[in-house]
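re the bet — no i am not wrong, look at it urself. input seq straight from the record:
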Amino acid sequence: MDSSSARRRGAFDRSCEGDAVLDAETSWDEVLLRLAVAAACGGLLGWDRETHAKPAGFRTHILVAMGAALFAMIGIELSSEVRAAGGQSDPVRVLDGIVGGIGFLGAATVFRSRRGVEGITTAAGIWLVAAIGAACGIGAYQTAGIATAIAWFTLTVLGAVIGHLTGVGGIPEDRRPISED
């Protein structure tokens, strides 16, 4: 294992201290809890996108969060099995794959229109929901909850404030008046 991999592995081990990381003895109840918490966090953030008629809404955010949680659990499980067989494994690589894959999904929500570039907040939300789902997948519920709360505040409260100040809050982008600038 090169020094870069060793550093990443050490950071992963330290980040999971005290969390209920998946292992061979993880119960089905724990698996269900991790997926359910991921779905709840994703759904909360997806609801804002859904109510504002954005391209990726409630169901998409739930599926992204659950998918990331599942990939994180599978990565940890496979890593445990490889290590038990005497091999070397780096579960952080699973997170690398999640980030890369979600980038493609997020890019699908960004498009250019007469009004400019749209969908960037939704793309960022999908990216964040994947991270929240991965946190749930390793049992880091507190981290996932804090990130969800801050994201919810950003989307709803700050979104309403910006909408109030600009006069376009809550109006779907395709129904906003077109500027003549």
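see?? Strands lie at 111-113, 116-118. told u. also The two ends are 57 Å apart (CA to CA). so pay up
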